[in-house]
Amino acid sequence: MKRDQKFYDMYALVVGVLAIIALAIYIGVTKLSDINQGVYTVDSAEYQAAVTDRIQPLGQVYLTGDSINAEAPQVMEAEPAEPVATVLSGPQVYNEACNICHGPGIGGAPQISDPSLWTTRIAQGNDTLYQHALEGYTGEFGYMPPKGARMDLSDDEVKGAVDYMVETASN
Ligand code: HEC
Fold first, then answer.
1. Least packed by Cβ within 10 Å: which of 39, 65, 96, 160?
2. Residues with Cβ within 6 A of ligand 1?
């Protein structure tokens, strides 16, 4: 009988303590919620909006034809690339495209190293030399292909090479 009494005392104590904890949690939670902090009332528009906002899904699916209600993506302008030297100088063009024939004198090409082969050619004037270099030319010694068969070269690059050849051959 005495042991039962002890058990009931203990039981009542535990239940009492649990009840107090439950009450404490309840009060804590209601205190923490915005409603009881006086910010909103439950049926206020702000409260409804705050709840709707809080329960928004993280992503949305747009189907073809849907208008997308999202911020325009931020496009960053890329830094313009450093310009690369694309125009070749006269000597560069000569070495790349003309020396093959005009160095050793292949196929009747007047050698750049022999000024005597150039005097009559230079006497024609630069415009003729440019035209023959750009458009190609068949003379009594052989065939000079247009732009030395390097059609990727610009007219100015080829003219630069002609200037370089004339300059070299006149010295
Ligand atoms: C496949 C060989 C070949 C290549 C490559 C070549 N030439 Fe010629 N070139 C010739 C020949 C051959 C002649 C001489 C034609 C003739 O007078 O019978 C000639 C003549 C010339 C003449 C003199 C034209 C004239 O009116 O007397 C010039 C200027 C000239 N070449 C410029 C160039 C330049 C510039 C290049 C490079 C872009 C070049 N050549 C590449 C073969 C070549």
1. 65
2. 93, 97-98, 100-102, 106-110, 121, 124, 128-129, 132-133, 137, 139-145, 147-150, 158, 161-162
